[in-house]
Amino acid sequence: MLKFTPILLAIIYGLVMYRFSAWRTRGELDAKSTRLNDQGLQHVLDQMAAALDLDQIKVFVYEIAPVNGLAAPDGRIFITRGFMDKFKAGDVTADEIASVIAHELGHVALGHSRRRMIDFSGQNAIRVALSMVLGRIIPGIGVYLANFLTTMIGARLSRGDEYEADAYAAALLTKAGIGTQAQKALLTKLEALTGASGQPMAWLMSHPKTQMRIDAIEKLENRWAARL
């Protein structure tokens, strides 16, 4: 029984972390967000809503400076104040903002948002269990090896989600009459917009490389064109 104790502790830890993370995320978003109300974006929101047979698409502005979009585990879509500031400054277009919203809608529709929270908690649980086991087998470097392995697994899962959300967004934008050009254009701008510099090894990145994402979208475009 004692040999299974690290695994049981890791499972309990994962469940506790999931509950705590969900509660903390919901509270943070509730406290720092307001409903998006921007006439410059309303037409693209209406186009996407019509394509999805919805009356409206609710989007919230998350009052933080980094440039990002996110989908909460409860299904809400957020654009950060930093992203909105870039839009107001003319650095990004309404269609490019629409591509971000479409991408986050993809995460919700495909179940990524809720699963990511569970994955994160599960990865922490696995990290704890591996650290305990490998720490005994390989003293000194076992913990570092456990961190490396769980990070690599988590990054691979996340990259898969990004490709799927990109594909969903491309289909939605095409159906809405917005098209994928803005989606691809925004991807090329993201590093400059976010201030990112330098990239870790490809298999440790949580997002695929920009050109790989653009290539995947263009493969979809070619496939759809061939069916016409």
Topology:
Elements lengths: L4 H27 L1 E3 L3 H13 L7 E4 L6 E3 L5 E4 H8 L5 H16 L2 H26 L4 H34 L5 H14 L15 H18 L1
Parallel strand pairs: 2-4
Antiparallel strand pairs: 1-2, 3-4
The largest β sheet comes out as: 4 strands, mixed
Strand content: 5-15%
The succession of helices and strands, N to C, reads HEHEEEHHHHHH
First-to-last CA distance = 62 Å
What's the rounded overall pLDDT mean? 78
Give the C-alpha Rg.
20 Å
Total strand segments: 4
Give the overall shape, derived from the CA principal axes: globular
Share of residues in helices? 55-70%
Unreliable spans are 117-122, 197-204
Computed structural class: alpha+beta
Number of helices: 8
Explained architecture:
The protein has 228 residues and is of the alpha+beta class. The protein has one domain. Helix content is 68%, strand content 6%. It is built from eight helices and four strands, in the order H-E-H-E-E-E-H-H-H-H-H-H. It has helices spanning 5-31, 39-51, 81-88, 94-109, 112-137, 142-175, 181-194, 210-227; strands spanning 33-35, 59-62, 69-71, 77-80. Strands 1-2-4-3 form a four-stranded mixed sheet. The longest helix has 34 residues, at 142-175. The termini are far apart. The relative contact order is 0.12. Residues 117-122 and 197-204 have low confidence and may be disordered.
